[in-house]
Write a structure and sequence with these properties.
Number of strands: 0
Radius of gyration: 15 Å
Order of helices and strands: H
Helix content: 55-70%
Distance between the termini: 35 Å
Largest sheet: none
């Protein structure tokens, strides 16, 4: 989709993308920590 590649997109869209990316990254980190058994039974 070329619309997503446009650099001068709306700031709100950029914020949403940044928030989703951060959330996915956080889930990935938590998953890795759980895989190593560091977090334990928190989640």
């Amino acid at each position: 989709m070329p619309a997503l590649r446009r650099p001068h997109h709306s700031p709100m869209h950029a914020g949403v993308v940044l928030g989703v990316s951060g959330f996915v990254l956080l889930l990935a980190v938590v998953h890795v920590l759980r895989a190593f058994g560091i977090v334990g039974g928190i989640c």
